[in-house]
Amino acid sequence: MRKRNALLVILLGLIIVSCHDPKKENENLFSFNTSAFKETYTPDESVGLEIQNAQNKKIDSIIYYVNDAKVASKKSAEKVMMPLLDKKLGYQNLKALVYFEGENVETTARIEVISNVEPKLLNYTIVNTYAHDTLAFTEGFEFFRDTLIESTGQKGASHFRKYDYKTGKVYKQVNLDNNDYFGEGITVINNKIYQLTWQSNVGFIYDANSLKKLKTFPFDKKIEGWGMTNDGKNIYQSDGTEKIWKMDPETQKMVDYVNVYTNSSKIKSINELEWIDGKIYGNIWQKDAIAVINPTTGAVEGVLNLTGLRTKITNRTAEVLNGIAYNPKTKTIFVTGKNWDKMFEIRVR
User: Fold this and answer.
1) Can you tell me the mean pLDDT for 255-275?
2) 8 Å CB contact between 243 and 236
3) Domains in the chain: ranges and CATH
4) Is 335 in contact with 284 (CB distance < 8 Å)?
């Protein structure tokens, strides 16, 4: 019995020793002084980075990082002022690597940068009203020359088609050949149609004239496919969050992104996109509204409230507004929604 007790004491001692981790203890020695942080910042401000030294350890140096990029190096714990002018809107992940007494430890925190632009409330007038297929669960909407192209979702019913918006006559339709695919946004660039799928992590490229499929490509990031547009050089796509990604159409690789923010908060669930006069117009999922977004910064510069169009829809199964197609010849915007019985040609002012 005594031998068993002695063995138990030895085992407990080993457990206690093994749980003593100096690195874990060191993690609590230093921290950012988050009490000095504001709830949000704007790009025209600076943030003071200051390290708290709980046990007054002798600090040799501190290296500061923002989003894993080195921004400053100091020989002591003196405050570092970091301008936010060149930072993306959204969360900034802060890290300090503290060297002290022959050791080093890191501590982290984060701040949020919002837009300093107050969005303008835009108005519109209805120019024309046209019939819209109530079976079309609209995900993408874009003009190619004088022809409207629309892509739809729902597994087993996803397709895109070219048609005459005035009469509804379908010139050609392409059905997704896999019933597991949920079709999403489309855009036309370099005489090619690019189409996304929702959660399958693949997209398709077609010849814009014949609609022949040219390529299936994997997503460059582990994201969902939502909306799509282009500026003539790059493709922009949304993923259901506040992010809008910039894609190289030749390689299908993501080269950058912006976070969409107003002057109060981020805008979640940006959906269908359209490039209009140097800005990105984006549907906001579950809202009958469109955000006008600066493609360089992600700042929302305007908001178009289209709730008035909802009262003109008679189809009871109609869902959220989703579909923005700009006609450069008439300088008007065509909008519709998932399973709407109408599409509206509007002029924004």
Assistant:
1) 95
2) no
3) 24-113 (2.60.40.10), 120-348 (2.130.10.10)
4) no
